Amino acid sequence: MRKEYPILRLLEKTIIGFTRKMNLRSKILVLYGLILLLPTLALGSGAVYLVIRSFTQSFLATEDQAVTQTAQNVDFSKQSYDLLAIRTATDGELIARLGREYDDESEVVDTVNYVDRTFLITSKYLPGIADFRIYHTNDTLVQDGQLLWRPEAHRLVAGMDESAWFKAATDSDQTLLWSNAPDNPKQNVITRKIISPNGSLLGLVYILLNYDAVFGEMLDHPFNGRGSLYIVDDEQRILAASNPSSIGKRILVKDELALEQNESSPPASGESATGSGDDDVLDLTQNKELQIVKPLSSGWHVVAVIHMKYLDRQNRLILLLIVGITGFFLLLSVSLMLTIVKNIVWRIHKLGTRMSDVASGEFEVAVRSQGKDELGELENVFNSMTERLGKLVEDITKAGMLEKEQAFKALQAQINPHFIYNSLGLLRWRALDAQDDEQIRIIDALTTFYRLTLNNQINVIRIRDELEHVKAYLEICQFRYPDRVRVEWEVDDAALDFYTIKTVLQPIVENCYQHGAITRRKGSLIRISVFKEEERIRMSVYDNGQGISRELLRSMEQGTYVGKGTGNGFGVSNIKDRLALYFGDEASFAVDSEAGEWTRVTIEFPASFAEPAMRRER
After folding, report:
1. How far apart are CA 330 and CA 324, in angstroms?
2. How many Å is the Cα radius of gyration of the chain?
């Protein structure tokens, strides 16, 4: 007994459902894809992924190591300059001399000599120091213009108002502060507070650094031109960068936590928390390049932005190489597969063409068998099927015609003829008793009219009987509208014994009253003509009523308008259908009219002494 596997069964149903609406060629190609193409693509994709991943990891590791080395160099350089500023600001002798009051000029000179002797050489220890100053607020101590200075208004230091700079630095929470020179981005300013033992501010150490000497070598042409480097302070302000135009701006990177932003720390004096505007912010959050952030021991960060174009170019080259090789062999195998199935698909296509012929109504078609394989058997079955199908369609057509005939009969049987005849007989007996000749004539006309209308056993009658039916209807109308409508008859006696379909003229005459408004027109006229012309019968009904508009006539010709009314249940569209049912394309129905003037309805059909039968529809 075969063992059932639910997973395999589900997979089988899924594949069958997926390929159900595909042609044979597509199914074979899908099978080929599942067996060969997809595994090949999967293996190729895996190989591409592994190669690209390995190359990417190697590239990122190399760049990360380079950023780490740069961060270490920046950190060492910063600590060196920080140490110089701290040693100067914490020198005990300097603090003592700045905190005392001077009464003797010799003591002032001694202090100046001490500062020059001690710190003038110290300021030369490190490269890149463009200016070195010690600012104080001791009114008893002079400023020598070399190392000792007092802040004054109207004097600039590094492009800044000296007194404003001094006040901003003393108000800052930070003891040691790095900043950029406003008038020259190629210079950095180090400010260190000088604080007495009791905590009072004695002055500031001012160091002006040459940017190129301090950071230039580390930031010059980073990553061989494939990226940019930024040195960012603890306020996210760019102090140095490989792109000098970004110096002084605030920087935003993808990982905000990487900069360890302290939102509670106040901004620098004279600045808003987000900078002075969009031009004061370098936003890298939307940058799709690689960003590496390395923290320094002082709270600074080195931010590296590496262009991925080089990596993408190498990855693209690897991808194209592997895809090209894989694609070549796949195309070769697909070509071989298409060659194998070509003959089978061609035979199936020919069989499908013959089926299309059958669908269009051509049943006398056959397919020559190309072999004794499964397709050959299918071709033989198709030939047998078309032969039987033609006979079946013929039987169905006959059944459809009988069904339509029964529908017409059912429509006519809505009124019980016997009830009407008995009622009319009772009314005529009462009229005879009352000796009312006019009422007797009305009842006789009604009897003649309903005798044909309610006869469900016939669908075609002689023309003379159809005219008698119309005359009965007109006589009723004349009693209803006495002396309002003049009726003229033009009847060819040679046409009276030919057959026509029942109730073909009466609905048209009824439309003259209902829609032609014939009774409201002065000198109203209805002319009924019946002639035999060669081997055709021509009937027409003319009235000088209100006519039909051009738009309505156009819609009637296009078949979008049913007809002028329904006239006793048999409208214009019903007349057309019944003419086509019995006479086919040999019958015609035409309406001519002039709006406000007249209307003429003309019917033509073959003259026949034999009762016409319903035709097979095509």
Report:
1. 10
2. 55
The type of residue at 436 is: D
For residues 96 and 242, state if they share a domain. Answer: yes
Domain count, the chain: 3
pLDDT digits (tens, 9 = 90+) for 76-124: 888 888 999 999 999 999 999 999 999 888 888 999 899 888 888 877 7
Query: How crowded is the C-beta side of 417, counted as CA atoms within 13 Å?
Result: 16
**363 and 302 together in one domain:** no
Least confident interval from 8-12, 113-117, 296-300, 591-595:
8-12
* Residue 276 pLDDT: 43
* Predicted local distance difference test score (pLDDT) of residue 253: 78
SS3 390: helix
Q: Look at residue 337 and tell me whether its pLDDT is greater than 50.
A: yes
Say if residues 506 and 477 touch (Cβ distance below 8 Å): no
Q: Whole-angstrom Cα distance, residue 334 to residue 130?
A: 74
User: What is the Cα–Cα distance from 81 to 87, expressed in whole angstroms?
Assistant: 10
> What are the counts of helices (DSSP H) followed by strands (DSSP E) for the chain?
16, 20
Both 389 and 496 in a single domain?
no
What pLDDT, on a 0 to 100 scale, did the predictor assign at position 261? 44
- Distance CA(434)–CA(440), nearest Å, equals 10
Cα–Cα distance list, 590 to 123, 571, 576 (Å): 118, 14, 10
Q: How far apart are CA 566 and CA 569, in angstroms?
A: 5
**Rounded mean pLDDT, 187-198:** 91
- In 300-452, the DSSP E strands lie at 301-306
Structural domain for 182, as ranges: 61-262+275-306
- The confidence band for 568, taking pLDDT boundaries of 50, 70 and 90, is very low
Q: Are residues 364 and 468 in the same domain?
A: no
Confirm whether 467 is domain-assigned: yes
CB 129 within 8 A of CB 120: no
Quick check: is 345 in a domain?
A: no
Does some domain include residue 592? yes
How do residues 44-58 score in pLDDT, each as one tens digit? 777 777 877 887 788
Rounded Cα–Cα distance for residues 134 and 119 (Å): 9
**Is 421 part of any domain?**
no
Alpha-carbon span 148 to 194, nearest angstrom = 13
